[in-house]
Amino acid sequence: MVHGPQFPVARSAKFHIFFMSFAPLYTQLRRHAPLWAPFTSQWDQVAISSRVRLARNLSGEVFPVKAPPEVLERLCRKILREAGASPMLRGGIRRRIAELQEVERDLLVERHLISPGLGRGGPGRAVVIAPNQYLSVLVNEEDHLRIQAVAPGLALDRVARLAGCMERALAADCAFAFDEELGYLTSCPSNLGTGLRASVMLHLPASALCGRIERYAKALQKLGCALRGALGEGSEAVADLYQVSNQSSLGEDETAIVERLQSVVEEIITHENEDRLRLVREERVRLDDTIGRAYGIVRFAGFLNTEEALSGISALIMGLRYGCLRSVSAAVLNRLFLDVQPGHLQALVGRHLAADERDAIRAAHVRAALASG
What we know:
13 helices
């Protein structure tokens, strides 16, 4: 664990109330490093994590986008009861979104345990997370249920099996809305059919530096896939992290969707590794300049916003892999990648921070971590 500087904090009664209110959740989360962030110094690490999400709605019930609050609350109680009884989720985290502070919601979004949409709150919204955080059930987001499984690296088959196992456990007590022609019925037409959205998070610094990202996006669209930011639909790419996912789940079975995405991702990984080699062999000055500029900014800046910090850390990870940055460890960069995000930074300090104050404390924390790295 990276220990930053001891920031001055007014130890008032208000501070203790604020910190103690979210400290249990923060403590639970920190027991496990996020499964999506195992950055290493391995040259060929491109796939950061794999995820499969299954969208399901309860048969005979109004979907969340149209359901009144009292219906959503009733369904939430039912789903929490059934999900909480599952051995796969027992002993984990179970929270209603409305009962969480803003910083707690940020913590869960930043760890990719809930979507930004669910984090915005609303009646009957909740989440149940397995103790080791590899599996979670989102309640009353766009659909009644979103079953999500995550694993490090390129492991689509594994997460598909995990999500399917959780779905079968819930189906024993919950009948899902299903049509013989359309398959599973969902709020969004693109999820009709299997209700499956598979994705792989990729670290593509060389492809970005070589200007290939737009070409990837166009080619993937023709193959029925999409290239998005790390938080999925509607999110911007930050720190050279991209999510590749299937766009439709109608007309194919789960196996075909997963196999097609696996093939697409493997090809992108090949191109990324080729670009990494080309940069080292043919454009070393440009590569060193990119990494050196990033190091100078994050190592000495007095203020860092979230995007600047994450982009800088991404460049340092690249430098670590290329062997031109030996003073920092992968463990330090992994820890920083979480700590610089708004929710984690405020939890680390133990109080709410205004934007300017957050930028200054973020920069101080990064400087201290890199100096001791």
